[in-house]
Design a protein that fits this description.
Blueprint: H1 8-13, E1 21-24, E2 28-32, E3 41-46, H2 61-77, E4 83-86, E5 102-106
Antiparallel strand pairs: 1-2, 2-3, 3-5, 4-5
This protein binds adenosine monophosphate (AMP).
Length: 113
């Protein structure tokens, strides 16, 4: 798989493409995956345009940590008792959308990402 040419998630954050939002604050947007691999499949996305998790630094490590806080909140809000968190990192790591995102999949997930 190769990176998509367009940062679709930046367009979603800008409101140019619709999404099914489950959580939003100033820094993070979470919405349902358009091709769910589980009953609940949510993408947790920083609004800042970071391409891969390789861009984590001392300066932005709190933002990356907040993705996990939001995952916990989303799981509670959707009543998901057990789940998998996954992040594909880079083209060779199976990442397709060139914008950092954490996948939250409920435990009935059908496939590994
Ligand atoms: P990854 O392979 O980790 O880059 O995952 C990208 C995910 O984004 C896939 O699970 C896609 O189904 C999902 N996706 C792509 N376009 C959209 C969209 N417009 N709205 C919601 N999810 C999307």
């Amino acid at each position: 798989m190769t990176f998509l040419d367009t940062d679709i998630f930046a367009k979603i954050i800008a409101g140019e493409i619709p999404c099914d939002t489950v959580f939003e604050n100033e820094r993070i947007l979470a919405f349902h995956d358009i091709q769910p691999k589980a009953k609940h499949h949510v993408l947790i996305v920083p609004k800042e345009n970071l391409i891969t998790a390789q861009e984590v630094t001392e300066e932005n490590k709190e933002l990356f940590g907040e993705l996990f806080l939001v995952a916990k909140q989303v799981a509670e809000n959707l009543n998901i008792s057990g789940y998998k968190l996954a992040m594909n990192v880079g083209e060779d790591g199976g990442q397709i959308v060139p914008h950092v995102h954490l996948h939250l999949l409920s435990a009935d997930y059908k496939s590994i990402l």
